[in-house]
Specification:
Length: 298
């Protein structure tokens, strides 16, 4: 019995450490994207990233013999790929062309706010006064970042504001994707859904990438390709697999708490790699957003 308890305790420790690793992958991905964007157009970068992720997830899917979806559920998988992979990443990458990596990480963290709103509107789930308060607090924080954060040296940066708005929109799209997943999770394990969604999403990214042709991939240096591999293998494929495995051992609420660390990781990595120093507006707005998101997700 004692050995069993020790084994369970070690398993939980490994689980929490793995979640922390995933947050490092996801938080650092914003800076990684910013590093590559001067070499690879935004939509093409998303395509390269998810080709790699599709291959990795496909191999894992076959080796572990995951259940295949029925034909009647394929439209749902297709919609997941369109929203959660293609549209989300196009909006995020395009937004990162103009917005700061730290700003983007914080604004993406607003997804639980949109999930709470959509759950109320679409799924008719009850929403408490505390959640409503959290939604308003989070939105006020986003306004601080998107507006005041776009004022530098007294000059209003319209492009940065545009980038922030694209990132907020991508956060809303991710919420749509998450709400849709609730229906699919009643029928299939997360790995099946993520594998098929990623493959379909990669297909949808092709026309977005064609809009940027011709692309000179010979100009991409070795560091750029390493970043693309990092995004595809670690931030996308491995990150999602670890996250799904962790959800089998701990509650979604506990796992979700780790997401609040993502902007912190992003700020540190952006400072080291991009020399991007957060403004007072980003810091204050970020604290407000994270507090409001915490209330909205309760």
């Amino acid at each position: 019995m004692q050995l069993s308890r020790e084994t369970k305790k070690k398993s939980l420790v490994y689980c929490h450490l793995s979640l922390l690793l995933v947050i490092i992958f996801w938080g650092s991905s914003f800076a990684s994207i910013k590093v590559i964007l001067p070499q690879v157009p935004a939509n093409t970068l998303a395509l390269f990233r998810f080709i790699i992720a599709s291959v990795a997830l496909g191999i894992f899917f076959v080796v572990t013999k995951q259940p295949r979806p029925q034909k009647k559920h394929l439209p749902g998988m297709i919609f997941s790929g369109l929203s959660g992979i293609a549209v989300f990443n196009v909006l995020q990458n395009q937004g990162l062309r103009y917005a700061g990596a730290t700003d983007s990480a914080i604004l993406i963290a607003m997804s639980p706010v949109f999930i709470a709103l959509l759950s109320w509107l679409v799924l008719k789930e009850k929403i408490s006064r505390l959640q409503i308060l959290g939604i308003f607090i989070a939105f006020s924080g986003s306004v601080i970042i998107a507006t005041n954060g776009s004022v530098e040296n007294g000059v209003y940066d319209k492009l940065r504001l545009f980038g922030d708005l694209l990132v907020v929109l991508s956060s809303f799209v991710w919420a749509i994707f998450s709400i849709h997943l609730k229906k699919l999770l009643k029928h299939y394990p997360p790995t099946t859904i993520m594998t098929y969604s990623t493959i379909f999403g990669t297909i949808f990214l092709i026309p977005f990438s064609i809009m940027e042709f011709p692309v000179d991939i010979t100009s991409v240096n070795w560091a750029g390709w390493l970043n693309i591999l990092y995004l595809g293998l670690l931030a996308s494929a491995l990150g999602n697999l670890i996250w799904n495995a962790a959800l089998d051992k701990i509650s979604p609420v506990t796992a979700g708490a780790y997401l609040y660390l993502s902007p912190v990781v992003s700020a540190v990595v952006a400072f080291v790699l991009l020399h991007e120093t957060p403004t007072i507006y980003t810091i204050v707005g970020g604290i407000i957003i994270l507090f409001g998101t915490y209330l909205a997700s309760k």
